[in-house]
Amino acid sequence: MKSIDPQDLSVKENYKFLTGSIIPRPIAFVTTLSSEGVLNAAPFSYFNALTSNPPLIAISIGRKDGIQKDTSRNAEELGEFVVHIPDETYIEAVNQTAANLESDQSEVELANLTKAESVKVGVPGIAESKIRMECVVEQIIPLGGSPEKPATDLLIGRVVHYHISDELYQNGRIDAEKLKPVGRLAGSNYVKLGETFSLERPE
């Protein structure tokens, strides 16, 4: 077995090691509004739940040369955002929103996605998504890099409203097979929900 010190690797090599090892990763498809009213959308695979009391989720949004991405900046300015769970039915459109557009251009329009009004936040969601979560900003924590040029923003959101397709939600549980979620692997690779199995937690 190889023994590797991360300090001996470049940033890109560490990225490849992490993204090739921590798989599959759930994807947060995030919409935000700019101060000019442009609806921004982007996918992020450094994403997970933190706690259910209150419901908090976290997304790591990398910076470029210390400069915030539109998603972080918009969330910080408005204090709101919407997270969607990508599935097989619209994952290609989600991928299109990863294009590098100017901040005054909308990835939602580029990918021909449909806006859906939110209930408790001012940021619209995406109608194609079977699950979306309206969020308010709990914290944004710059991490990594240097104090002058952080490597990423850890965006922590408190979920204030859920939307879920009727066919997915029965007796308080979500049907994963009907959701058809898509996860992230390394490089350009993704994964669908495959064979599942159950293990009883020991007492």
UniProtKB/TrEMBL annotation:
<dbReference type="Pfam" id="PF01613">
    <property type="entry name" value="Flavin_Reduct"/>
</dbReference>
<protein>
    <submittedName>
        <fullName>Uncharacterized protein</fullName>
    </submittedName>
</protein>
<keyword id="KW-0285">Flavoprotein</keyword>
<dbReference type="GO" id="GO:0010181">
    <property type="term" value="F:FMN binding"/>
</dbReference>
<dbReference type="InterPro" id="IPR002563">
    <property type="entry name" value="Flavin_Rdtase-like_dom"/>
</dbReference>
<keyword id="KW-0288">FMN</keyword>
<dbReference type="InterPro" id="IPR012349">
    <property type="entry name" value="Split_barrel_FMN-bd"/>
</dbReference>
<comment type="similarity">
    <text>Belongs to the flavoredoxin family.</text>
</comment>
<dbReference type="GO" id="GO:0016646">
    <property type="term" value="F:oxidoreductase activity, acting on the CH-NH group of donors, NAD or NADP as acceptor"/>
</dbReference>
